[in-house]
Amino acid sequence: MIDITKIRKDFPILNREVNGKPLVYFDNAATSQTPQQVIDVIVDYYSSYNANIHRGVHALSQEATDKYEQARITIQKHFNIAKSHEVIFTSGTTHSINMVANGFGAFLSAGDEIIVSALEHHSNIVPWQMLCERTGAVLKVIPMNLEGELVIDTYKELLSNKTKLVFCNHVSNALGTVNPVEIIIKEAHKVGAAVLIDGAQAAPHIKADMQALDVDFYTVSAHKVCGPTGAGMLYGKEEWLKKLPPYQGGGEMIAEVTFEKTTYANLPHKFEAGTPNICGGIAFAAALDYMNAIGFKDIATYEEELLEYATEKLLTIDGLKIYGTSTNKTAVISFNIEGLHPYDIGSILDKLGIAVRTGHHCAQPIMDFYKIPGTVRASFSFYNTKEEIDVMVAGVERARNMLM
Ligand SMILES: *Cc1c(COP(=O)(O)O)cnc(C)c1O
Predict the structure, then answer these.
(1) What is the fold, at CATH topology level, of the domain defined by 49-292?
(2) Nearest C-alpha to atom 2 of ligand 1 is from which residue?
(3) pTM score, two decimals?
(4) Span 229-257, average pLDDT
(5) Which one of 52, 85, 288, 316 has the lowest number of neighbouring Cβ atoms within 10 Å?
């Protein structure tokens, strides 16, 4: 059971006011808030052992290196990853995806096919389009239905021995749909294709098991799991990471450099050129520790309760329509009110201290599918409450009355 009073005390930002009203933060799918425990880790890093890693023989450098490598192991354990060098520290999901998209060109020829899902975030569409332009590979799309679910029968038909790579998010940031990644991965492997799952939106809600999923690549952003921005991970199976060419050249990623030839460092350093976000990596692990102490099972149960409560309440509002009605979704509600622009609703909610997202949520193709300019998106976290949902529902009603 979630002790909500205790949890809310961990998040200093939840005490602030916005426009003279208590903050109601429902933009968790864009970024999560940070508990004091993680803020303390960040302050401690800069207050007591800030130094560059893997280089110095001096004490601070050793300490920072130890903490950073310990963080890698925390992340490894959390995602049940077989080997710690299969965890590559990155600046986040976008960076992780680009790393794979850039290197994967080495395995593609003209006419090969890449499959992406219709539910993708822009950061999961553009790099593949760029890769296709560069290699002559062809992009195919798994379509979605009105509930906001992928049409898996069509996906199976798209797969062939031409398919080299499949990309899909684990959870859609725009609609909250949890995609059947187990099936997607299994089917892709039958034709010998590799699979990258974008776990940015799943990580705050689902503890994904890399070995059980048997996925080839998986990406996470720390800032969506109560960690800092500018940190994240790329998980890659060892066999793939060994084959994949490095993304950036620089310090830390080389074994030996002469002007004739450079040999690359071992994993994970081959993909970690330059000075990384040391503090960010350490705080990322601290954030996972924080969430694990609460427990992902309890988090899921509580968020499910919030989702059901909010869905029921919102649907009592005249003309309100929810997009994304899969039975398997996380605590995200994308909605519109007939005749009103989502931006206008969002602006009125902001005046009431309620933070929601409005627009296309970096997923324009989904909005085109529904033939709408965007939605209002409320996304909940384990530190939100039913009382806050009541405040939002009252705010949406007020917006409707003002704008109609
Ligand atoms: C947030 C998000 C991204 C982008 O993550 P960054 O941290 O901005 O790199 C990609 N995919 C999904 C599903 C997301 O929710």
Answers:
(1) Aspartate Aminotransferase; domain 2 (3.40.640)
(2) 200
(3) 0.96
(4) 89
(5) 316
